[in-house]
Design a protein that fits this description.
Largest sheet: 7 strands, parallel
Strand order of the largest sheet: 3-4-5-6-7-8-9
CATH topology of the largest domain: TIM Barrel
Shape: elongated
Helix content: 25-40%
CATH class of the largest domain: Alpha Beta
Structural class: alpha/beta
Number of strands: 19
Number of helices: 12
Distance between the termini: 7 Å
Amino acid sequence: MEQSASTPVENPITAGNRLTIDLSALARNWQAMARIAAGAETAAAVKGNGYGIGLEPAVAALAATGCRTFFVALPAEGLRARAVATDATVYVLNGLARDQAPGLAAGNLRPVIGSTEELADWATYRAQGGTGRAALHVDTGMNRLGLTFAEARELAADPEAAERLGLSLVMSHLACADTPAHPLSARQLATMRDVKALFPGLAVSLANTAGIALDPAYHFDLVRPGIGLYGGPFIAGRPPLETVVTAEARIIQVRDVPAGETVGYGAAATTRRPSRIAILSTGYADGYHRAASSTDQRPGAEVVLHGRRAPLFGRVSMDLAAIDVTDLPQAARGDWVELFGPNMPVAEVAEAAGTISYEFLTSLGGRYHRRYVGGA
């Protein structure tokens, strides 16, 4: 089923870029992860505007497929998710800001408590008659958010603490799961087993997308896939699951450039032969990162046109990028070029830019025309 796009660019004729977002592929990716993590509940991370595809369409498609628990970063994201999935459980990963407990509870959102200060605020709220639920984050080695193990052990010394605080989940986050042989993951797993022993009545969650692939031991009671749902890397050394996002840009001009000339800002790339250069209506204002540029010293990212690859040529600017189409004589003004999608994996483009798939997906701006296909 095709859905309307919630973006400022409603008319595709006026857009220089377009996105095709396959909600059925998103749903199938969730189902694939649920099969791998059989025995644990499979939730979904929909933070960052649903990893760039739109939070509401993502939540709707996943809920229709059977997902019942969602993770967001901010309360505002949580309220958007709650409006779509009224019966789902929604956790707010970035914790509890001061004086925020009553508002979160009123929105039926569950903060992930990540410090003793937050815990004290939540305890005060609950002691005053609050009925909201929460998760507890215990740091197992990331050293970012979460109670220390010693702090968690002190809390667990009171056998009534979890019930008094309305805790429904204890969780942690893997730091290096996308590097399967990294020893930190095994250390975090061992610590999480100790955490589970401290809170025997609570569901436990440790695995993100990469953690799901490590070993069933990391699955515990609930897994929280994110990037893998959206077509990013999943299992090291294997292709990702289905493509969810296809990003394309329009060719607005094709020009002949003699050998020895430079193209774009900074004269960063020089033609070594008489060349045909196509100019794309995309740039870093659209979320196509400047770091993907090519220079005379290093290659940049590639795109796909008429089923063949073409390299970026020179710097990506705010609104424009250039590609070398000398070997693609059929390239013409008005053609659509695949920036990333089924023929050009987003992970490969991100690697050429020295970054990760997450950054490209979550940077997708409002200048794209969005077309949603599939879904319930």
